Every structure is written in structure tokens, then in C-alpha cells.
TrEMBL record, chain A:
The keyword Nucleotide-binding applies. The gene is metN_2. It is an enzyme of class 3 (hydrolase). This is Methionine import ATP-binding protein MetN. One of its GO terms (molecular function) is ATP hydrolysis activity.
Automatic annotation (TrEMBL), chain B:
It comes from the Bacteria. One of its GO terms (cellular component) is plasma membrane. CDD domains: TM_PBP1_LivM_like. The lineage of its organism: Bacteria, Pseudomonadati, Pseudomonadota, Alphaproteobacteria, Rhodobacterales. It comes from Planktotalea frisia. Its main location: membrane. It is found in: Cell membrane. The chain crosses the membrane at residues 9-26, 46-63, 94-116, 123-144, 203-222, 249-269, 289-308, 329-349, 355-375. This is Leucine/isoleucine/valine transporter permease subunit. One of its GO terms (molecular function) is branched-chain amino acid transmembrane transporter activity. Keywords: Cell membrane, Membrane, Transmembrane, Transmembrane helix. It is a multi-pass membrane protein.
Length: 251, 403
């Protein structure tokens, strides 16, 4: 029994079957990659995990509890953090403030009316955020507007924000999409380091096979909304069905 | 000082000094001189400056921090006024219970309207609040006449119960006036120096004191974790939701707080002049506070107060200039030229002050999206150039986006 258990999930958009009988089991403390051609339903599946979409049928269990019918913030408080396909950060706030918000969410829960004390007086939060920025190698940018960061740094910040909540499951939707080679390699190193340093389960959607094969312990191949195979990277590489549905296409 | 950073504390101190010295600052021209009509240091107008300042400060907590643009905030102003007048009628002419009730009822009313309107965002939220405010206006004007006085408005009467001050009411034959433990709000003392006359009005100083408290509270809110969350709502609500924060109670709390500020302003209006009418809830009044906030600088601390002062000054001073006055000003010019200049200026003054306001508003929105505050900052930067390197100034800007 894994930490995330998806059973018989179906999702239709009008006449389009975006997800058809998806079963997925992610083992605790593993890195699980989901790959598949454009439009395969990878993001749709992720949306069903975090409460952005509700599947038509099927069940999604996280650590033995159903996530269906819960709001995104409730699912996050259960221990699932998500990094989006295009970085979602607070562009108008400083980098440090960006980092403090998830720290507040971790400490105070979904709502806390703390309208009188100053942010600066919350020393535990400030320290935690500073330490997290240090870890992300972004401490020197703490006073910058987040909107002014480079795309790679935005992604780094978003990952850092998710990690500061110490989630049990981290979901990444194409974290290296649109990145230069160097940035991609940095991201791979960062994720490897994250995995080494803490107990965390990572589910990652990725097109870049270099990223997938350097990180994943298991791979699920999705095509037209249905999982084709699930196996270790070594076996996936040589799998004829996968070559046909996915790798063949990109070659 | 008072738990504020140095920069905020000096801003508060500046506002304190300006409000306390307002009777002097606003009356720079000697009585009887041609410029005397630009003097704004009379009680009625000074009271309006600070009361609308409170209204705009509160509005800015919602609009400036969360980005939710309410088009119905005048409803809370009206509710505050009605509540205060009822307190004068039933309980006592003391302004404290009247203002307390104004804040409480407007807060409850904001809770109800906010709960419903905040189900939507963007333009739909604005339209919902507008609809609610217009509904309140229509109700106050018609069905609710027993409570609101309908078209004539709610006024005091000689035979009102006023349970707490029945003794003093029996003494005189006049309707009593609002007071703070016996200090009458309408009383003023005057001080003449040469040909200058300075007026110190009790009501003004009381309202100014409340405005300073409101301003201080708003600084605390801006700098608090709650304020940070509200700014995050404006920046990226989706990220906030996926970061485990429930945005709804945050926006609702901001809505209720700003509704209470509006109610406080409405209550103070009634305390200065104990009557309340439905027109206070009309949509133009809601629009006015939007203009004040944008003109002064959305999301800045001092901007809304500046905007409120600017608009009230124009409304009361510019609108009083007529063509006769213009002719006396330009009398030194040759006749033809004098007429020509007066004709050109005339549409912008008197009843045409709205035109001037509209032009000013357009200029600010186009050239100074950050409002008058941005204008001030730009001027300050011009003077500072050379002293500091630009990078340092930019870094400082990023850390305190809301000045
Ligand atoms: N909200 C929606 N409404 C209608 N159709 C949708 C919606 N979201 C996704 N789809 C469709 O569902 C299919 C799966 O989309 P999805 O975004 O999950 O693909 P993906 O595997 O993430 O692709 P990519 O690699 O391009 O990100 C696509 O055909 C898409 O057009
Ligand atoms: Mg996708």
C-alpha cells in the first residue's frame, strides 16, 4: 500500500475522455515519474489529486484518507504540495515574503487573524524562511520582487515554498519545461539533494527523458488517458509499447 | 515607537502634526484678502477632511490590500449614520455610544454582504456590492421609512426618549446637540492674529483623534501577517489556496474591517451634524471613495487620506468660485483679454469642478498609476539623486512595497 493510491479514476471533458480507468500507486519515499505524450492527461490527473478537478468516478486516497471533495487548501494541509507547470508565486511580494507565507500556513493552519503584531516580530517564521532561502541558494535575492526573478529562479522559489511546508508528497508538473540545459541540470541536482536530505515522496510529470531517467525509481506511462505500463526506468527504456506510444514519437 | 518601524512611526507623527495644526495650515490667507476663499480651515470642511480620510483608509484595507474593488461601501457609511442618530434619539446625546453602535451595526451588515459578495471575484464582486448598496439605498428611501425617515431623512426631535439624559432635556426647550461628556461637538473657539482668524472646533479635534487612531490601526494591519496574507490574495489567489490557506475568511475579515471603518466615518458624520439621509448610501458616494483611494495611491498608507483631502477641497473650494470672482482676479488685464481668459477658465470652476476632478483623475491614472504618493516619491527621488546610488533605493522599494 503506497502513500498515494489512485483507483479507477475517470474524467471526461464533454466528449473527450481525458482520464480512463487510471490506477496509480506511489510508494512512500519514492520518486515516481508520470510520462506521456502531449494531451495524455498528466496534468488532468494531477489536478484530480489536489482538488482542482473532481474525477467523475474512482477514488484517490492519500495516506489512507480520501482527498475527493476536499478543497485545495485542505488537501495541502493534509501534506500534499504542488508545483505548477508555469511557476505560481506571489509576483508582487518580495522573495522573502513569498517564502514566509507557506511557513505561516504550516504554523498557523488555514486561517489565523493576526492583524496587530508585525511580520518582522514573528522571528520563528523569518528564521525559517531565511534558512529555506539559504538552502535554495537564493538568500542574496531575498529583497527582490519575485516577479523580477528569472524563470529558473521562480521555479526554485516555488519548489522551496512547497518544501518549507515539509509536505509528505510533492507533486511536480514539468518542473524543467522551457528551461535552459544548465537550469535543468540545477533542478535535477536540487531535487536529488531534496530527496537525500528528507523523507519525502515525489511524483513528477516530465517530458525531458534526461530528467526522468536521472531521478525516477518508477515510471508510469500514460497515453490517451490510460496507463500503458508501470515499471522501473531500465525496463521502460526498452519496452516496445512505450517506444511505440511515446519515445518513438519524440525520436 | 508604538510598535512601529521608524519609517511608519515618522509618517504617523507627520499626520499627527498635520491634523493638530490643520486650523493654521488650512487658513494661510488673511481674512478679507482676495485669497481668503481658498482658506479651508473652517470646522465643517476640516471635519469632512478627517471623516472621509477614515472612510478612505478603511476602503484601502479592502481594495488596496486584497484588490477586491467594492462599489457599495457607501452603504456602510449610511448604516453607520442611521445607527448613530438612533442612539442619539434613544439613549443619549453622548457621541461614544452612538459611534460604538455605528461601528457594530456596519460590521454586522458588512459580514452579511461580504459573505454573499465574496463568492465571486473581479467585476462580479464589484457588481454584487453595487447591487447591495443600491438595494439598501432604495429600501432606506421607501420601505424602511419608519427606521430611516425616508425622503426627509432621520432627524432628532424634541420628544425623543434619550433615556440617559432625560434630566438635561427637561431643562431646555431646544433639541440638545451631540457632545462628548458635555463638550459640545459644534462648539469652537477662535483666535485672531492680525487679520487672520483661526478656528478650533471640538468636533474637528474629536474626529481627528479618531482618524489618527484609525490610521495607526491601519499601519499595524498593513505590517501584520494578516496584511501579508491580504497582499498575497491580491497577488496570486491560486498559489495561496495550494499553499494551504483558506482565502475566504481572509477576504471576509478585510471586508468587515473596512465596512466598520466606513460605519465609523458615518457615525462621526452624524456626531458632527445629527441627521442621516439615504443619499449617503447612493452609488455616487461609493464611487467617490474609490476615486479618493486611486487618486491618492491604492495600497499606500497615506494615499487615501491625501485623496480624500484633495477631493473634498476641490468639492468645497473650487466649486465656490464663480465668474464674478474670476473677473475681479483678472481685472488688471485689458477688457477683451479678461473676458477671454474668464471664458476659458469658467468651465473648470464652480459647478464645473467635476470636470477639473475628472481631468486630474485621468492624468493621475495615466501618468502616476501609484497616485499622488507616487508623485511625491518621484519628486523626493529627484532631490535625492546623486546622494544615493539607484540600486540601493530600488532594493529598499522592494522590501516595503506599501508605504
Ligand atoms: N478544463 C478542461 N476542459 C476541457 N478539456 C480539458 C481541460 N483540461 C484538459 N483538457 C483536455 O484533456 C486532455 C488532457 O489534458 P492534460 O492537460 O491533462 O494533458 P497533459 O498530459 O498534461 O499534456 P501536456 O504534456 O501538454 O501538459 C487534453 O486533450 C486537453 O485538451
Ligand atoms: Mg500538462
Amino acid at each position: 500500500m503506497g502513500i498515494l493510491d489512485v483507483k479507477n479514476v475517470n474524467k471526461r471533458f464533454g466528449g473527450l475522455q481525458a482520464l480512463g480507468d487510471v490506477n496509480l500507486n506511489v510508494a512512500e519515499n519514492s520518486v515516481h515519474a508520470i510520462i506521456g505524450p502531449n494531451g495524455a492527461g498528466k496534468s488532468t490527473l494531477l489536478n484530480c489529486l489536489v482538488g482542482k478537478l473532481i474525477p467523475d468516478t474512482g477514488s484517490v486516497m492519500f495516506d489512507g484518507q480520501s482527498v475527493l471533495g476536499r478543497k485545495p487548501f485542505e488537501i495541502n494541509q493534509m501534506g500534499i504540495s504542488r508545483v505548477f507547470q508555469t511557476p505560481e508565486i506571489f509576483g508582487d511580494l518580495s522573495v522573502l515574503e513569498n517564502m514566509m507565507i507557506p511557513c505561516f500556513a504550516k504554523r498557523d493552519g488555514a486561517f489565523e487573524l493576526n492583524a496587530i503584531s508585525s511580520v518582522g516580530s514573528q522571528t520563528d517564521i523569518v528564521e525559517r524562511a531565511e534558512q529555506m532561502l539559504e538552502e535554495m541558494n537564493m538568500a542574496d535575492k531575498r529583497h527582490m520582487h519575485a516577479a523580477a526573478l528569472s524563470r529558473g529562479d521562480k521555479r526554485r522559489l516555488e519548489i522551496g515554498m512547497c518544501l518549507s511546508q515539509e509536505p509528505r508528497l510533492l507533486l511536480l508538473d514539468e518542473p524543467t519545461a522551457g528551461m535552459a540545459r544548465a537550469d535543468t541540470n540545477n533542478t535535477i541536482d536540487l531535487l536529488k539533494q531534496i530527496k537525500e536530505e528528507r523523507d519525502i515522496t515525489i511524483a513528477i510529470i516530465e517530458h525531458d527523458m534526461h530528467v526522468v531517467f536521472s531521478l525516477a525509481e518508477r515510471i508510469t506511462v500514460l497515453a490517451q488517458g490510460t496507463p500503458l505500463v508501470e515499471d522501473t526506468p531500465e525496463n521502460i527504456k526498452g519496452h516496445p509499447k512505450v517506444r511505440e506510444a511515446y519515445l518513438g514519437e519524440s525520436a | 515607537m508604538l510598535g512601529l518601524q521608524k519609517k511608519d512611526a515618522s509618517l504617523l507623527l507627520l499626520v499627527f502634526a498635520l491634523t493638530m495644526l490643520a486650523p493654521f495650515i488650512l487658513n494661510p490667507f488673511p481674512e478679507g484678502s482676495g485669497w481668503a476663499q481658498f482658506n479651508a480651515g473652517y470646522p465643517d470642511l476640516m471635519q469632512r477632511f478627517v471623516i472621509f480620510g477614515i472612510f478612505a483608509i478603511g476602503f484601502n484595507i479592502l481594495f488596496g490590500l486584497t484588490g477586491y474593488l467594492s462599489f457599495g461601501h457607501a452603504a456602510f457609511l449610511g448604516v453607520g449614520s442611521y445607527s448613530a442618530v438612533w442612539m442619539f434619539k434613544l439613549l443619549s446625546m453622548n457621541v461614544i455610544p452612538a459611534i460604538a453602535l455605528a461601528v457594530i451595526t456596519s460590521g454586522l451588515f458588512a459580514l452579511l454582504i461580504g459573505f454573499i459578495s465574496l463568492r465571486r471575484s473581479g467585476i462580479y464582486f464589484s457588481i454584487l456590492t453595487l447591487a447591495f448598496a443600491q438595494m439598501s439605498f432604495a429600501l432606506a428611501y421607501s420601505v424602511l421609512t419608519p427606521i430611516t425617515g425616508g425622503e426627509t431623512g432621520l432627524q432628532l426631535a424634541l420628544d425623543d426618549p434619550r433615556i440617559l439624559d432625560s434630566i438635561s432635556a427637561a431643562a431646555g426647550g431646544n433639541i440638545p446637540v451631540p457632545s462628548l461628556f458635555g463638550i459640545e461637538m459644534r462648539d469652537s473657539s477662535e483666535w485672531s492674529v492680525g487679520s487672520w482668524v483661526f478656528t478650533f472646533n471640538n468636533g474637528y479635534y474629536f474626529a481627528a483623534f479618531i482618524m489618527l487612531c484609525s490610521f495607526y490601526l491601519s499601519i499595524r494591519i498593513f505590517r501584520s501577517p494578516f496584511g501579508l496574507m491580504l497582499r498575497a490574495v491580491k497577488s496570486n489567489q491560486q498559489r495561496l489556496n495550494y499553499t494551504g490557506l483558506n482565502t475566504r475568511p481572509y477576504t471576509l475579515a478585510a471586508f468587515v474591517i473596512s465596512g466598520m471603518y466606513a460605519g465609523l466615518a458615518g457615525g462621526l458624520m452624524a456626531a458632527m451634524d445629527p441627521l442621516a439621509g439615504a443619499e449617503r448610501m447612493f452609488w455616487t458616494a461609493s464611487g467617490e471613495v474609490v476615486l479618493m483611494t486611486i487618486l491618492g495611491g491604492v495600497g499606500t498608507l497615506i494615499g487615501p487620506v491625501l485623496g480624500a483631502g484633495m477631493i473634498k477641497y476641490m468639492e468645497n473650494i473650487l466649486s465656490k468660485i464663480n465668474s464674478d470672482i474670476l473677473h475681479t482676479w483678472f481685472a488688471f488685464l485689458p477688457d477683451g483679454l479678461e473676458d477671454f481668459i474668464v471664458t476659458i477658465i469658467y468651465p473648470f470652476i464652480g459647478k464645473g469642478w467635476h470636470l477639473t476632478l475628472g481631468l486630474l483623475f485621468m492624468m493621475v491614472v495615466i501618468f502616476l498609476p501609484g497616485g499622488l504618493v507616487e508623485g511625491g516619491q518621484k519628486i523626493a527621488k529627484l532631490f535625492k539623486r546623486g546622494k544615493k546610488d539607484d540600486d540601493g533605493a530600488k532594493a529598499a522599494d522592494a522590501t516595503t512595497p506599501a508605504e
